[in-house]
Prior knowledge:
The complex is a heterotrimer of chains A (328), B (173) and C (777).
Chain A: E1 5-8, H1 12-19, E2 24-27, H2 33-38, E3 46-49, E4 57-59, E5 65-68, H3 73-78, H4 80-85, H5 87-94, H6 99-104, H7 107-112, H8 118-121, H9 164-170, E6 174-179, E7 182-187, H10 188-191, E8 210-216, E9 224-230, E10 241-250, E11 253-262, E12 269-270, H11 272-278, H12 285-296, H13 307-327
Parallel strand pairs in A: 1-3, 2-3
Antiparallel strand pairs in A: 4-5, 5-8, 6-7, 6-8, 9-10, 10-11, 11-12
Helix pairs in contact in A: 5-9, 11-12, 12-13
Chain B: E1 2-5, E2 8-11, H1 20-27, E3 46-49, E4 52-55, E5 68-70, H2 83-90, H3 100-116, H4 135-141, H5 152-165, H6 168-171
Parallel strand pairs in B: 1-5
Antiparallel strand pairs in B: 1-2, 3-4, 3-5
Chain C: H1 2-11, H2 16-25, H3 56-60, E1 76-82, E2 88-94, H4 96-100, E3 104-109, E4 141-142, E5 148-154, H5 157-164, E6 168-173, H6 180-185, E7 189-190, E8 192-193, E9 196-197, E10 199-202, H7 205-211, E11 214-222, E12 234-240, E13 243-248, H8 253-264, E14 271-274, H9 289-301, E15 305-308, H10 311-317, E16 324-332, E17 338-349, H11 361-364, E18 371-380, H12 394-412, H13 416-422, H14 440-451, E19 464-465, E20 468-480, E21 488-494, E22 499-502, H15 512-524, E23 531-534, H16 551-574, E24 588-591, E25 594-597, E26 600-606, H17 607-613, E27 618-624, H18 630-633, E28 637-649, E29 655-665, H19 672-691, E30 697-698, E31 703-704, E32 723-727, H20 750-762
Helix pairs in contact in C: 1-2, 12-20, 15-16, 19-20
The complex binds flavin-adenine dinucleotide and FE2/S2 (inorganic) cluster (FES) (2 copies).
One FE2/S2 (inorganic) cluster (FES) binds next to loops of chain B.
Keywords (chain C): Molybdenum, Oxidoreductase
Domain Aldehyde oxidase/xanthine dehydrogenase a/b hammerhead (chain C): 61-175
Organism (chain C): Novosphingobium barchaimii LL02
Amino acid sequence: MNRFTYARAADTFDAVRQGSDAGVKYLGGGTNLVDLMRETIEKPASLVDVTGLSREIEELPGGGLLIGAGVRNTALAEHRLVRQRYSLLTRAVVSGASAQIRNMATVGGNVLQRTRCAYFYDDAGSRCNKRSPGSGCDAIDGFNRNHAILGASTSCVAVHPSDMCVALAALDAMVHLRGDGGERRIALADLHCLPGDRPDIETMLEPGELITGIELPPASAISRSTYRKVRDRSSYAFALVSVAAVLEVEEGHVRNVRIALGGVAHKPWRAMRAEAVLRGGPAASLAFATAADAELAEARPLSGNAFKIKLARRTMVAVLEELAGEIA
Amino acid sequence: MTMIVNGEAAEIPRDPRVSLLDFLRDDLNLSGTKKGCDQGACGACTVLVDGERVLSCLSLAVQMEGRSVTTIEGLGTPGHLHPLQQAFIEHDGFQCGYCTPGQICSAIGMAAEIARGVPSHVTTNLGDDAIRLSHDELRERMSGNLCRCGAYNGIVAAIAETFAEAPLAEAAE
Amino acid sequence: MSIVSDAKQAIQGAVQGAMAKAVALAPDNWIPGGEPDPLIRERYGHVGKPLSRIDGPLKVSGQARFAAEFPMDGMVYAALVFSTIAKGRIATIDTALAEASPGVVAVMDHRNAPRLAPPPVFMSAPKAAGGDNLPIMQGNDVRWNGEPVAVVLGETQEQANHAASLIRVIYEEAPALTSFAEARGQGTRPAVFMGQSLHDERGDAEAALAKAEVQVDATYLTPRHNHNAIELHGVTAAWQGDVLRIHDASQLVAHTAWSIGQMFGMAEDKVVVTSPFVGGGFGGKCLWQHQVLAAMAAKVTDRPVRLVLSREGVYRVVGGRSPTEQRVALGADREGRLKALIHTGVTIKTATNAMPEPFILPTRSAYASDTLKLDVQVVELDMLANTFMRAPGESVGTFALESAIDELAEALDIDPIELRIRNEPEKDPSTGLPFSSRHIVEAWRDGAQRFGWARRDPRPGLRREGEWLIGMGCATGTYPYYRMPGGAARITLTRDGRAIVDIAAHEMGMGTATAQTQVTAERLGLPLDKVSFNYGDSTLPGVVLAGGSQQTASIGAAVGAAHRDLVKALLKLAGNESPVAGLGPGDVVSREEGLCKADEPSRHETYTSILARAGRETISVEAEGPPPLETMHWSMHSHAAMFCEVRVNAVTGEPRVSRFLGSFDCGRILNPKTAMSQFRGGIIMGLGLALMEETQFDERKGRVMNPSLAEYHVPVHMDVPEIDAIWTDIPDPHAPMGARGIGEIGITGTAAAVANAIYNATCKRVRDLPITLDKLL
Ligand SMILES: Cc1cc2nc3c(=O)[nH]c(=O)nc-3n(C[C@H](O)[C@H](O)[C@H](O)COP(=O)(O)OP(=O)(O)OC[C@H]3O[C@@H](n4cnc5c(N)ncnc54)[C@H](O)[C@@H]3O)c2cc1C
Ligand code: FES
Ligand code: FES
């Protein structure tokens, strides 16, 4: 780990002021950043600790929620309104990592956690375009069982590992940001980038920009939602594939649907094509399968992960059937 | 700058790189807290910070200013064991004993979480405030603590016995 | 008994053939274990009681000190730099930045490392412990990807780690052989294991197979594995005068002391290795480069050194289990009687170690078959030396063999338990030796009853609850009884009636200290609290390896021998006024804190009284166990009937074990509480082997890519159901205490039981481990 200076931010303004210097990183729970610093992949000159900021979950007029970026994952999952209205978010959060990590991890940090690709982690011995742009990608012909099937490039096939973000993408969450130039908002589904030829650029954040919160739009009273995670180990393992879905059915027809996939792409993958196929159509298994196929038509397997296409398809269909079944 | 460790003030190290884990083990000589990976992947380094279980390997000591840290040494001593420590012995909840302090601290943190109604991956009804202390709930909630010796059955039995007898919140104190 | 005097040599492989025959034919009572250990008769004492671990209070309160937890004055912390090529040489190594980094005390690399001899590789001498025989940091050549190339010593761990990241190494790469397929293309070589060839042939098995009415012939694959004890390999090393002191995490302290002595050109008693607690071993806590580097660095800095491998470091420096590709072919008649049994295949080692994964071992004495062909071939790669990992051979060998048996049962439409029982041999099929004690059929019957095997539907793929397909499977587990030569112990009796046993043995969680306290108390007729057991220190007597599940027998035989000598010495000391005066060692037994005439217990005198009368504070005897000839006279094996119920998700393929039972025949169980944990622990590692464990070795560069507990999956709490274990508890009349060792058998048979259950659930036969969900979609 490089030497660095450490300071606690007094408030959001203070954080952004300090964060505008080059080489500064915000420190949340540290569960990703400290690990990556120890692996010499992240080498910040200073850390600005933002865990004391934005620790509230606020109900917004109109029924939405504003979740502070400093809210710990456990606090998010256990919050009564989250459990009641956005149960898929609770489900996603508690399916991730371990209880200890969830007690430490913050919402902001979870959104910005980096990939678990083995070649990205192997600073000393492997090539990785994300870590050192232009060096090459050892994953494309290496161990890539956990890697992307959608939206990957010839530069990078890594996936974003967050569970929470997949649920947030399906919830149409908005990310609140503050930087030098003031505040702005961006849809969570648009926050992360596809790798293209610059996999080192992972999000739309400007340098020094701070996540201050996540806004959830009001939940529809008649929608049903869930999060399903498929993994090798029963617990404490990253998703091979996960599906977050919100479904509203009226008289056997899909009135509204939002689906996001995890473990398949460089970002939480909003399944827009599948949604388009389903919207207005019958809430039936055949339609679910057609929708899944539509979404996965563009999927491109690597040497070790062809199974993910089948797995994603099946999991999507099963999740939608489950939600439709609950309604029926 | 100080933190409280097992009830006593401890000066925070000047080098901000020092993890809470290394601070406890190397500076305070409290080697009951174990290092199994230094990567957040095994749970051996679990301690309680203000009553919550966290991984000391991924916590920086500087972040602990003003906070209260409880380690295994703060829970009981060979002559005065915490009931959970005693139950680990009765149920043979360990073999080599290396993951054990982490398992015990984790279980105590978990008891408080259950008492508070924090749901887990296997909680079926998220609307419920009371969590039933089932075998599955215990196993899921303890899954952040690896035991390579495979003492899992004994660990779960020890926790179940300890926290079935005392109301959760009390036993967690 | 010239047999006994020649035996040591024989065991070390020098004069095997003729000697083995002589031992096999010798009368029983010439052989150790020929007279059953008197302790076997005792059924009401300490042995067999579920005593809680005596080191429990220390362990649960965090007071047990492990290797990296001994602070020393002036101690410096070490950090390693690992090579990133598999073969070649270091062209330049730039340490200037590191040396200038704050807190750095020294940087050691091949240019300034002390000169020393290469490690004696394990099995090259009785006390050799090296994982390989490659010289350590003596030159600029690189032999595997991940080899340590520099050591940074700093005032704090953080300073050392940071400085290590500043070292720049430029390599000249040489072509390396890191691909299994490529190596096989260049030809394989017959494997040799512990001085013996891994090749056995009886009759023409291929011809018998071809003629057999029913045949099964399949290839099974098992990947690389790492031990992943939760304790990182740690060592604290200090030169104190001319003595090198090493706090190690070790399962072989005496071997380590001798081997390090050889390397530094020192007498072994000048190297003191202690290891009171070991945070899990499983074969991985032996002698690798880190202990030696720490000792070298302590010399370079003239300060004590603490070196704890990072988790990545463990994967780079400590070998694991090699992959195997195994063929099992079975030919049988319609009744299921085996006509041909073929188990052959290939595994990987290095040119510098002597450890081919001996996967045919479990097949040698498994089944009666008209013909037999067993063979292990090896290829050698440029990689870190592989090594022993829990049940080397049996763990992965039983996966292949017992999967094939299940396939045969399916082909024959015979219940797989019944098929196994039909092929029970009467004597050892490979050696012709009689079995010392084999009650596997009882284990099967008891297990089947308890597990509810009768409820299994033999037709696969039919049981379903919601999304979950449910199946049951079974397999035989087996592990030999071993006892290695060199076990010795000292017993000291004190005037206040206490006994102290000293032996250079190990406690890695097996419960050794607890069980041996029980055994010793019983042997000496003492209450438990009057016995203390000292171990984990190379200055104590004995050369005892905690491996091969043999430590219990080794200690048992040594303490038994020491006890016999102690009785003799006490009788001498007792003199004419003693109630036991005039009796010979054969006439007396130890009971109620003293000696008494065996058939006249009222003729009794306490140890205290004997010592007091003789005016002695203590009496101390040291003795060595007899050479382990029993394994050449009887076929001695433990067995287990493993039963598994799995649930496989029909949508996602996720396999989850819902029930497991091991029904064991391991001789006498000394402590049912700690034994239960050993059985369960082995089974749980077997579940990992079956479902998730794999070291990802990138053959392009010969580099392990998942050196982390996040990416190398071992079972977590949620993966592990309540595991049931029962045992026959029938003492082996020829093993010390009647006990055959229980540390490794749990992992054997388990993977096959899981695979067979998965087949029963899904109709899918998976022959390559681990059985991850993608193979079941
Ligand atoms: C063994 C292990 C298993 C895991 N398993 C899972 C899993 O199954 N599923 C899963 O989803 N996750 C998993 N995780 C990852 C875990 O969820 C993340 O590490 C965690 O959510 C990160 O949150 P943090 O607050 O600790 O972030 P930090 O580590 O503090 O920060 C992460 C990044 O976010 C930046 N950052 C933090 N806060 C802000 C802010 N407010 N504004 C701008 N930037 C900010 C930091 O600068 C840093 O770049 C696992 C982690 C480990 C170690
Ligand atoms: S040492 Fe902290 S989780 Fe392993
Ligand atoms: S007791 Fe050894 S790792 Fe848990």
